[in-house]
Amino acid sequence: xxxxQHRRRRGRAGEAVLALGVSLAVVAISGCGRGGGGxxxxxGSGGDRPPADAAAVVRGAADVLAKTGSAQARxxxxxxxxxxxxxxxxxxxxxxxxxxxxxxxMLPADVTGKPGHRPITELLAPGALYMKNRGAGVPDxxxxxxxxxxxxxGNLVTGxxxxxxxxxxxxxxxxxxxxxxxxxxxxxxxxxxxxxxxIGRAARSASPQVKGALEAAAKGFSKDTxxxxxxxxxxxxxxxxxxxxxxxxxxxxxxxxxxxLYGFGTPVTVVLPANGDIYAGKIAE
Length: 285
Description:
Order of helices and strands: EEHHEEEEEEHEEHHEEE
Largest sheet: 11 strands, antiparallel
Radius of gyration: 18 Å
Strand order of the largest sheet: 8-7-6-5-4-3-13-12-11-10-9
Strand content: 35-45%
Number of helices: 5
Shape: globular
């Protein structure tokens, strides 16, 4: 999970990391391959009147969330390779105004072959990811802190859940956006858009708190373009977004990362751990 990669290793296609003690399975990337086509869950009628500039609407989704303030979030990261499919679920809340969040990430029981995995608590902060119950030799009462600007993927997939703030900011690089039509997400009427986003372009336009992580991702991925499906409500708020990453490492590995937002305005309080509560020892990859 905590993998410090450098640009000189960009030629490696990627590495799926499933050994994190009894706690977590995540994807660590040292250089992704090309992106595959993402799909969104449910399509609307193609006859709906499209917005004047679909790309501009999608690129502005992160700004709308910042004005909205906060939301509850559910995440799902599905990894498939060689006929094996693993899905990691997360749930929590995000303060988009202050760029903070908290997720409880749940690992399928059969990933390590042992039952009783404890959920991993992840705290999201500008430039940092904090994890508790991370396992792999980390004491139960300690947190692990990761500088997301040093991760080759900028924590788009490393944490087992794409940071909802990064997922929204990634849309700032949206290109070739198509308006699919109207549909519903969790009973809410939404507009469905499909396209690709350029990570480098998104990084240049990103908010200061997320910029460093996306800049790292732009350097670490072998190709910058990532397909997406996004669903925005009538107020332009992001309700659901799915990004699809595909890379090669002794076979094709597909990673589909989905973020669902709801409960807008729900208060979200994130308290970062004190320095003494952060594990200072060596962390197993």
